[in-house]
């Protein structure tokens, strides 16, 4: 994703019609996607850990 961003930035610099709004929108998109990815992985780990502890607690009852 970073390589795509650098390539996009380079192509915009070569192109004389550089628009600052495109850069801002792309930076916001990269920030949101990275935050979403890290939050989703933490949430998945939390759900899996809770599920495993519930199963082990349930199995220890029998």
Automatic annotation (TrEMBL):
Sorted keywords for this record are: Membrane, Transmembrane, Transmembrane helix
Q: Give the superkingdom in one word.
A: Bacteria
The portions of this protein that span the membrane are: 25-43
Q: What is this protein called?
A: Uncharacterized protein
């Amino acid at each position: 994703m970073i390589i795509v961003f650098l390539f996009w930035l380079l192509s915009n610099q070569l192109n004389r019609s550089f628009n600052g709004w495109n850069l801002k929108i792309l930076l916001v998109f990269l920030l949101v996607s990275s935050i979403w990815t890290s939050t989703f992985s933490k949430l998945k780990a939390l759900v899996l850990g809770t599920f495993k502890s519930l199963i082990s607690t349930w199995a220890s009852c029998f």
